User: Fold this.
Amino acid sequence: SQKIEQNSEALNIQEGKTATLTCNYTNYSPAYLQWYRQDPGRGPVFLLLIRENEKEKRKERLKVTFDTTLKQSLFHITASQPADSATYLCALLYGNNRLAFGKGNQVVVIP
Amino acid sequence: EADIYQTPRYLVIGTGKKITLECSQTMGHDKMYWYQQDPGMELHLIHYSYGVNSTEKGDLSSESTVSRIRTEHFPLTLESARPSHTSQYLCASARGFSGANVLTFGAGSRLTVL
Assistant:
């Protein structure tokens, strides 16, 4: 069956350090992989997308890598700030233009 | 600023009531989606639409129904609410020819059925 796995344990990180999150997937062959941020009680907000033929994408303090051989994406927040505290969701495009989401990985940035 | 609006944000109702969750977007997007999310869990796709008069069921079976009579409007209806329908319902939209299908989400409707 198709699965998207993100670490269920919250990541506690000191302000200023780099947070790294992992997204692993099985039985998908996504042309695109996306990352979203979700705050409590709110809808997800799009952050970055990466195509299957791209190895790395950057946007300000965010960096995403995509390894289709390992079926894995890494999401990095550099110079983390307390305002970065949220849950980060990995999403894959599949089927007829549908997006499947992982459970998300909570990040807590400690001042 | 969000261009996709969901109402109500919070709803507490009794078992057996009919409810409609409203979703409207002002971006002219052809594609619209409803996801269901329980606390700490992933989003599950329950309905989607690729244009007016087009609706499809998603991957998670749901007793709800949807309609798409206007491009901007995609309401979700439960004819007879039950406690098992208690959840957060998230509406989203995307541009019709966007290959990457980046979604814009509403703030969600949290439904509690007593």
The interface with chain B takes residues 4, 31-32, 34, 36, 41-46, 49, 51, 89, 91, 93, 97-104 of chain A (CB under 8 Å). Chain A is about 0% helix and 60% strand. The radius of gyration of chain A is 13 Å. The longest strand of chain A covers residues 86-94.
